[in-house]
Amino acid sequence: MIFNTGAALLDAIVLAVVSKEEEGTYGYKITQDVRRTIEISESTLYPVLRRLQKDDCLQVYDRECGGRNRRYYKLTSAGEAQLRLYSDEWKVYSRKISALFSGEELA
Asked: How many CB atoms lie within 10 A of CB 90?
């Protein structure tokens, strides 16, 4: 994709991906799911996860998997609220951009 992906959009995408799994999901799966939408490296994703954890949007816990611990991420109530805000803002933003490209008049 030729458009830059800013921090807010990355946060919104990650929160949306994590929200799909009620019990939480782990970093590698998050990366794979996000890559279905945009190209992102793990080195870009993990700072996003840490920032969302620091902002109390994600709860982090470890679970044993194949003899090793795997770090899981789950939305907090603050994360759910932030995702709703991002979703609402995205609807307005994308509608305006689409209207601009199509030549539609905005009221």
From this structure: 15
Measured between alpha carbons, how far is 63 from 88 in angstroms, rounded to an integer? 33
**CA nearest neighbour of 58 among 47, 69, 42:** 47
Is the overall model pTM greater than 0.85, yes or no? yes
The per-residue pLDDT for range 50-93, each reduced to its tens digit, is 999 999 999 999 988 888 899 999 999 999 999 999 999 999 99
Helix H, strand E, coil C: the string for the chain is CCCCCCHHHHHHHHHHHHHCCCCCEEHHHHHHHHHCCCCCCHHHHHHHHHHHHHCCCEEEEEEEECCEEEEEEEECHHHHHHHHHHHHHHHHHHHHHHHHHHCCCCC
17-38: pLDDT as tens digits: 999 998 899 999 999 999 999 9
